Amino acid sequence: MKRTIVLRGYTDFDKEERWLNEMAAKGLACVGWYPYIYVFERAEPGAWTYRSGVLPASDSRQYLAFMAEAGVETVAAFNRAAIFRKPTAKGPFELFSDTESRIAHYQSIRTRWLWVLLLLVVPGAVLDTAFVMSGWSTSDMLPLLLVQLAFICVVPLQMLRATKSIRSLEAERLITE
Amino acid sequence: MASESRSGPLTETVYYILLGLHTPRHGYGVMQLVDEITGGRVNLGPGTLYGALNALTEKGWITPVGGAGGDRKKEYVITDAGRSAVREELERLEELLQNGRQITGGGSR
User: Fold this and answer.
1) What percent of chain A has pLDDT over 70?
2) A79 or B4, which is more confident?
3) Has residue A49 got a pLDDT over 80?
4) Which residues of chain B have a CB within 8 Å of the CB of A100?
5) pLDDT band of B3, cuts 50, 70, 90
6) Residue B72: its pLDDT value, please?
7) Residues 13-32 of A with CB under 8 A from B
8) Contact assessment for residue B21 and residue B30, using Cβ atoms and an 8 Å cutoff
9) Which of A31, A173, B50, B104 is 20 to 30 A (C-alpha) from B14?
10) What is the ipTM of this complex?
11) What is the mean pLDDT of chain B?
């Protein structure tokens, strides 16, 4: 089957999910993903419903087995981020069905970003120091610093977004489950 | 943290999982049963169900049947502690219904 490759990066799970479902509605079903690379195949428009999720840190294999058991196909999983899909004909597909677990979902997204921040900032600072000590000038280091800055800006933004979602779900939880 | 005494109402998710596990079932079996007995109103999400099954196992209200078997489909069943939690919840629900019907005067048979 003919495959279409789209180069694209998402930092927001909800936006990625929306985009995948829009593509599916146009008849392009995502069948593979590697960071920044999405692979699509032609399918009946709207044949699949997509969900983007985070895998649990400790038992992700069990989680994926559980998904398969529940009739959910794992399109791809990388670095604890996963894309799932289910045939639309088999009924509505949501990963979460109550407020509590939706809150937990956004909390794990936030924690995941916190790790990204720690894993980027600490080695980044060490790297910068090493370059400075070896006599690099500020202008030599500018490209590196800009890349680091971009990453460091994205992370708090995404953490803030997750926090907003948590807050609004918590407000909802005061009234309904 | 095993078998603490409970406090507060059960969530709908937990309530229906506990009902579903009065007979040993695997996760998907619980999803199907709950969908069926609620006429499709409660559609448990797999992510929600997975988290709840783990939390309930940890609490000692349900237990895996036939030991831990790797990737094999895991079946669960309710424990005595789980049963008593359901009984308490039923009493609470009876009270809710009774008070609700009495005060609104609606829904009485």
Assistant:
1) 100
2) A79
3) yes
4) 11, 13, 48
5) very low
6) 60
7) none
8) yes
9) B104
10) 0.83
11) 88
CA–CA min distance A60, chain B (Å): 11
The full set of domain ranges for chain A reads 3-90, 99-173
Q: Which H helix or E strand runs over A116?
A: helix A99-133
**Three-state DSSP state, A28:** strand
- Name the burial class of residue A125, with classes exposed (0-12), middle (13-18) and buried (19+) by CB atoms within 10 angstroms of its CB: exposed
Q: What is the pLDDT of residue A124?
A: 84
Cα(A125)–Cα(B43) distance, integer angstroms:
48
Q: What angle do CA A40, A43, A45 make, to 5 degrees?
A: 110
Q: What's the pLDDT tens digit per position in B10-54?
A: 999 999 999 999 999 999 999 999 999 999 999 999 999 999 999
Residue A171, Cβ density class (10 Å: 0-12 exposed, 13-18 middle, ≥19 buried): exposed
B31, B47, B71: residue with CB nearest A95: B47
CA distance A121 to B46: 35
3-state class (DSSP) for residue A82? strand
| CA pseudo-torsion sign A130, A136, A139, A144 | negative
- Report residue B27 as tokens: 């996760």
